[in-house]
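Section 5.1 Outputs to date
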Amino acid sequence: MKIHIQFSTLSAFILRILFSSAEPLSRSSAAKAVVLPLETQEIKSPPPPSKLPFTHNVTLTVSLAVGSPPQNVTMVLDTGSELPWLQCNTTRKDRPVFDPNRSLSYTPIPCTSSTCTSQTRDLSIPASCDSKNLCHAVLSYADASSSEGNLATDYFAIGGSRFNGTIFGCMDSGFSNNLDEDSKTTGLMGMNRGSLSFVSQMGLKKFSYCISGSDFSGILLFGDSNFTWLLPLNYTPLIQISTPLPYFDRAAYTVQLEGIKVSETLLQLPKSVFEPDHTGAGQTMVDSGTQFTFLLGPAYTALKNEFINQTARILRVLEDPDFVFQGAFDLCFRVPLNSTAFPKPLPSVSLVFNGAEITVSGDRLLYRAPGEVRGNDSVHCFTFGNSDLLGIEAYIIGHHHQQNVWMEFDLEKSRIGVAQVRCDLAGQRLIAK
């Protein structure tokens, strides 16, 4: 089951990656580092990294060029899905598109190709054959959005490098549920562990990103992050299950959540609550395409009750059973409209993994619900949602709770490394190199 939540309106994060002139990347040098200031540049390390920049708003987006002659496109950077795809329906005027008819190097993939018959097995729906004998793909997501079209290959240009034969979906139908987001992006760059993801096709062994919690800038790094000022990174192993299970996404970045703390209070939950069951339900995924964090019912309820208990003298609970923000956030509070800060420090929430920990504190714990006012109060909701309310059989760690955390995805050693760091300063330091 492909559990990618692209909750557009929930996803408040535009990762604008501007590739600067870095040394050319090649598939053979993919192990090298490429720093992308999620809003600035590029580096390379086993060849050197590339730095790029980004900004915070709707989704993480990467700007690059595709085709011959090159067409500029903007793609959502998403560790929660596999196939890179571009919107190719040139009759639509409400969003940017890639026009395959303008590219001399565009090559559709026939349904008899091994790419179509074997490599699409990790997709939520395996590819099929259309009336023109071309490889046809249908992608569906947990937020009820979908995209449909044909697989093809073309040049993808990043910085000064061109990657020939990159496989992607050229989609002619299907959009997300957010028109505002659609108007800004041309497609989606899948970054999970599937064979057709951008990471796999480029042969990347490691990539990292760091999202600033202050100025919404950040850094994206393809390759090694062996910078002494970043160490030590604490690592947690990636979980792999070889047997196909109905509710387990084997291509996702799955880690083992072992516990949750509110301040120093560890929630009293049995270990089984955090472990996938015999169907695969209950895996914990790290997903840059989702904004907030979602927990399965028992863990969510325990966290909700403890947070209410520890904030009883600080926050006023919104007593409105009919209001559930975005269908998954039923813990909200009333905060005076003229308040610039919460009266007292909020208790932190820590996600405890096998070997690592991510701590969420301050204003990352609450999110103001747009347009919601009760008398002289605004409505702020707890940024941990209930997976059960969405019908999702998984824990999902979103990018909102990854701010000021260096996130390293080490595919070679099958692990994720984390370290608390000022991401705005890290970005400045890398860009200056």
